[in-house]
């Protein structure tokens, strides 16, 4: 049974899963060309990328329900549906994954009717969603490493197949012990491959977004740019992580900058960037070891060696107030500029420099998701 599973269904599942992910990426990259500025970090939990991804996976959930109904077999699609639910929770957040669950449950009722199988399916979906919501919250607070998260997800999949075997769930029964083991092994392989592919695509997307910012100096803002930030940040991370000394980071993004460029032109956008660049350069002088970088089209990062989180948060609020109070004139028309801000401090749980950077960036995108002109500090409670 297991040999037969590996020879045909597992190989098919791998190609189908890769096709699902790559089709989603092709769709998103087409959208990124028009909505994401060069150097901007890709985040699927907010904005148009979130809306499109939620819609895509909701439609996919409905299709899988239809396919199971048409084939009169649910068992071959169970791993797909569990993994879709789990990774939409991780990438799209609670709201996005909840929409996918609702689409899946509604389509189940539409195709199968309100039967015992339907109620059992709903119970399973909601239980897995609640478990993953809890895991995602814990993972965020303790900054769980990707490999550890993959192992936790394997435990969720193993728990399902164990219960499916002992309870003989209607949607997969009759289920032998050997068949349950085969499905679980398949889940582990699919999960590991999916996590690797998604991480690789994320890194590639962010690399493509940042590729136009290779210079080490930006004459427009008088700030050092992405290439120099990358080198300096890696050095600081190693030094302060080893010493367990405070190192804080502030990520700043100009609100509605793309709209400003579209409405007033790129020269006006350059004037805004230059003004804010000079302001940040001036204000960060209060911390002699601080360095400020332009790391994207309208995004700036400030590294604060030796500065604890509470002081970094207060400094970020001061910067936000100073920027809001600065009036920039374009063709004698005053422009009021606001920024969204994310703040985080280096933790021993940050296994790599990317972990700390991405955590700070998540704080920034939470500020943008809350309506912009906000500050989010990573206290471990968001």
Automatic annotation (TrEMBL):
Domain of life: Bacteria
Ranges where the GGDEF domain occurs: 245-380
InterPro entries: Diguanylate_Cyclase, GGDEF_dom, Nucleotide_cyclase, Rev_trsase/Diguanyl_cyclase
Residue intervals passing through the bilayer: 14-32, 44-64, 76-92, 146-167, 179-198
Keywords: Membrane, Transmembrane, Transmembrane helix
Name used for this protein in its record: GGDEF domain-containing protein
């Amino acid at each position: 049974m297991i040999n037969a599973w590996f020879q045909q269904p597992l190989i098919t599942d791998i190609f189908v899963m890769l096709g699902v992910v790559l089709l989603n990426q092709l769709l998103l990259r087409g959208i990124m060309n028009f909505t994401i500025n060069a150097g901007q970090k890709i985040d699927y939990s907010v904005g148009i990328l979130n809306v499109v991804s939620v819609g895509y996976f909701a439609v996919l959930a409905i299709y899988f329900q239809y396919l199971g109904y048409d084939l009169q077999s649910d068992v071959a699609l169970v791993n797909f549906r569990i993994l879709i639910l789990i990774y939409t929770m991780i990438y799209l957040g609670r709201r996005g994954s909840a929409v996918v669950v609702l689409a899946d449950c509604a389509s189940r009722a539409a195709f199968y009717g309100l039967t015992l199988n339907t109620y059992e399916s709903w119970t399973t979906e909601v239980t897995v969603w609640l478990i993953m919501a809890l895991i995602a919250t814990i993972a965020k607070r303790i900054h769980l490493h990707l490999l550890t998260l993959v192992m936790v997800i394997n435990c969720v999949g193993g728990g399902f197949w164990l219960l499916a075997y002992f309870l003989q769930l209607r949607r997969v029964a009759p289920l032998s012990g050997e068949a349950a083991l085969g499905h679980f092994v398949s889940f582990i392989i699919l999960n590991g491959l999916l996590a690797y592919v998604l991480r690789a695509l994320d890194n590639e997307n962010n690399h493509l977004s940042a590729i136009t910012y290779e210079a080490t100096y930006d004459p427009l803002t008088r700030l050092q740019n992405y290439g120099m930030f990358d080198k300096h940040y890696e050095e600081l991370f190693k030094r302060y992580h080893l010493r367990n000394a405070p190192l804080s980071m502030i990520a700043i993004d100009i609100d509605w900058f793309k709209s400003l460029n579209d409405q007033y032109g790129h020269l006006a956008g350059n004037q805004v960037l230059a003004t804010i660049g000079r302001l940040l350069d001036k204000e960060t002088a209060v911390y002699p070891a601080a360095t400020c970088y332009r790391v994207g089209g309208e995004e700036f990062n400030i590294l604060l060696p030796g500065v604890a989180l509470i002081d970094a948060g207060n400094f970020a609020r001061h910067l936000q107030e100073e920027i809001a109070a600065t009036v920039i004139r374009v063709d004698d028309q005053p422009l009021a500029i606001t920024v969204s801000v994310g703040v985080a401090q280096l933790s021993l749980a940050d296994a790599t420099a990317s972990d700390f950077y991405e955590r700070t960036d998540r704080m920034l995108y939470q500020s943008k998701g809350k309506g912009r002109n906000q500050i989010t500090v990573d206290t471990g409670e968001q």
